Amino acid sequence: MNGLIRKAGMEKQISCDSAGTISYHAGEAADGRMQKHARRRGYELTSISRPVKPVVDFEKFDYIIGMDDDNMRDLRAMDSSGSYGHKMFKMTDFCKVCTEQSVPDPYYGGSAGFELVLDLLEDACAGLLEKIKKEL
Predict the structure, then answer these.
(1) Contacts by 108-111 with C-beta closer than 8 Å and gap 24+?
(2) At 35, which helix (H) or strand (E)?
(3) What's the pTM value of the predicted model, to 2 decimals?
């Protein structure tokens, strides 16, 4: 998403961050295999894993996006006040081409798994950026 934002010259209008619903990988860079596949497509994955901070993140961001149904369930559970459901979406909600209902965990699917995730994210991020542009 950050690559698309930069390419569109919208870094001043759009802020994008990544966080996880669990803190198991907190402080770590993206999986080396994902970095390798992403670099092949011209993406440099530089973010460091951090857990979602519900009080801060839910207020700060206009979109709170989960990759699959488990993420969505966890995000909704973090919204103890029930005030932020209107901001929560599944990443595949923004896909224009791909028909998968969620972004799968690529870590056990070999190279094809990482490529599928990148295909889904490219499609969904383009759709999300298109939606945001219409809202600005």
Answers:
(1) 111/33, 111/37
(2) helix 32-40
(3) 0.93
Q: In sequence order, what are the residues at sequence separation of 6 or more whose Cβ sits closer than 8 angstroms to the Cβ of residue 70?
A: 21
> How do residues 59-85 score in pLDDT, each as one tens digit?
999 999 999 999 999 999 999 999 999
| 91-107 residues labelled b (16+ CB within 10 A) or e (exposed) | bbebbeebebebbeebe
User: CA 16, 122, 67, 21 torsion: positive or negative?
Assistant: negative
Residue appearing with tokens 């369930």 = 73
CA-CA distance, 49 to 63, in Å (whole number)?
Answer: 18
For the chain, which domains are there? 2-130 (3.40.50.2300)
Specify the DSSP element, H or E, that contains 66. strand 64-66
* Beta carbons of 92 and 103 less than 8 angstroms apart: yes
